[in-house]
């Protein structure tokens, strides 16, 4: 596996070729026009962090020059000036975008959660846009037949069940089987590269929301995860991709996304704010119950509740636990249908009592532990009305143990202690693959 940090593009010209001078002029003209076309801001990037996509253009264009490219991407795959990488590459003659591959929510990120996408032609580039969410999760040999290099550029949010990292794994696997180089353009983990929490996914619960045996909150970047999946032999039949990671510059593991100076682009319709991503590793577990996780509101995952929940009672119970970095405010909310983000949210048009999860000190906040406290409190306070979606909660947790322990009345801190040994082993494994 290669990681790239510092290398400037330098055109190579063979003087013994009659067309050498023309080739040289063409290359210089191309690079000048490319940089101007992408906007002068790329000469003096103001962002503290430079993403792999920006560095591909500025330093590592030789990796794709003259190549036919397949690009796994969505609306988050932008350069520092806001230009979509796919659009920028399509507009230049030194490479050729021949196929686009979209994860959940599609190439342009406008499909609701869980919506199955069809293959189509991308309107902006005119090239085939294949869906990797639905009947097909992995590029087929037919899709890859005219591709010289397959690239991945999508913003992740740092949780195991966010499906973009499953798409990453399947795409890398397909490239390995086809003998095509695989290039990951790295981006920040928006909730920092430190927090590691949750049960390791058990083998019996391997699904698209838990493809590999990692914890709920993994504390890794996309490039680091790709390296882990590849080097640990977790791709099908132990195949290994010819993987290159274009590393970021300026990113540190202690950084929250709003400390990078990069603009927040909601990675999915319900990931509206960075504050949503901060609570998501724990509050996504609410999806495995009959509670509303706040879809159909302006604060999905930051507010939870149901018509049977008394918000004042739940807030008091949770605040009495004195969990680090978080306060629970009693609220009422009414989920509404939103064609883009929540066509039919739970308890639609019903007034729900519940709590707002207000993170007041995010460095000390523990999202998965907090999520377990919330589930335990609701289960204890409203036992006649609270219900599990059993398949859903087990898939999200990566184990049956969470559900069974809460039903048995096990204290949340004891549940957290139960993952200690396996989490310790993962942390040691993880250390081998950290790039920053």
Structure report:
It is a single chain. The chain has helices at 20-37, 52-58, 85-90, 141-144, 164-178, 222-231, 274-283, 311-319, 367-381, 390-397, 401-407, 412-418, 420-431; strands spanning 2-4, 68-73, 96-102, 120-121, 128-131, 149-153, 182-185, 243-246, 303-306, 326-333, 352-359. It has two domains: 2-259, Uncharacterised protein PF07075, DUF1343 (Rossmann fold), CATH 3.40.50; 274-425, Aspartate Aminotransferase, domain 1. It has 13 helices and eleven strands. Residues 6-45 have low confidence and may be disordered. Helices cover 29% and strands 13% of the residues. The strands form two sheets. Strands 1-8-7-6-2-3-5-4 form an eight-stranded mixed β-sheet, sandwiched between helices. A three-stranded antiparallel β-sheet has the order 9-11-10. The chain has 436 residues and is of the alpha/beta class. The relative contact order is 0.12. Helix 8 crosses helix 9 (367-381).
What are the main properties of this structure?
3-stranded antiparallel sheet; 13% strand; 8-stranded mixed sheet; Rossmann fold; single chain; 11 strands; 29% helix; alpha/beta; Aspartate Aminotransferase, domain 1; 436 residues
